[in-house]
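Hypothesis: this fold can be encoded by more than one sequence.
Test: take the structure tokens below, design a sequence, compare later.
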């Protein structure tokens, strides 16, 4: 078999690539914050490709992610780990839960946030529990960070660096919050689990390749 061209995508030729590093495809709601944050991870034994897919309600994000992953497969790009990242925002509860179920049925792992991704940032500082409207996140982050929080690209790049040393605390807080809603029945209702997030599960997975 001939050697792959140097110009060929590192995500092609799975048999040659897999022996060296594993690969993550992370498909995100939002143009800047989430993709920029996850692309900032520098892993020694894995590649990360985080891409925006669409904005909108949770179901629209999941459907767009399914199409994008299929487009990648059609190009010969296969991935070891496929994640979809989205928020509840104003998505009705039943649709939010249905979006999570659809993503999982299609083989995705889900990093959701109720209400928004910024709750993951807040958990780097404090244990945040109970209802908090997403419109309050920016003001609270401004106080904690000492600078204005926005969804612009420059701020998105800064967030990973500023919060890196607090990542372990964020995981601890997010796990505690997630487990708070576990009643032992095996049934969960993510739409009612405010202000929870499963972003920590994706971050833990990424950190295992650092």
């Amino acid at each position: 078999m001939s050697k792959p061209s140097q110009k060929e995508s590192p995500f092609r030729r799975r048999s040659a690539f897999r022996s060296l590093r594993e690969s993550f495809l992370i498909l995100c709601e939002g143009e800047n914050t989430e993709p920029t944050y996850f692309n900032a991870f520098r892993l020694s034994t894995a590649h990360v490709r985080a891409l925006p897919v669409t904005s909108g309600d949770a179901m629209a994000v999941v459907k767009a992610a399914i199409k994008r992953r299929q487009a990648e497969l059609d190009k010969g790009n296969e991935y070891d780990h496929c994640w979809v990242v989205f928020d509840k925002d104003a998505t009705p509860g039943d649709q939010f839960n249905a979006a999570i179920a659809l993503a999982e049925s299609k083989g995705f792992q889900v990093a959701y946030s109720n209400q928004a991704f910024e709750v993951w940032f807040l958990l780097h500082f404090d244990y945040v529990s109970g209802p908090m409207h997403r419109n309050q996140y920016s003001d609270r982050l401004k106080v904690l960070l000492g600078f204005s929080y926005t969804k612009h690209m420059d701020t998105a790049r800064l967030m990973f660096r500023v919060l890196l040393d607090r990542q372990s605390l964020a995981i601890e807080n997010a796990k505690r919050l997630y487990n708070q809603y576990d009643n032992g029945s095996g049934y969960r209702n993510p739409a009612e689990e405010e202000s929870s997030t499963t972003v920590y599960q994706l971050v833990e997975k990424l950190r295992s390749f650092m």
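Residues 20-178+189-207 form one domain. The chain has nine helices and four strands.
Hypothesis status: open.
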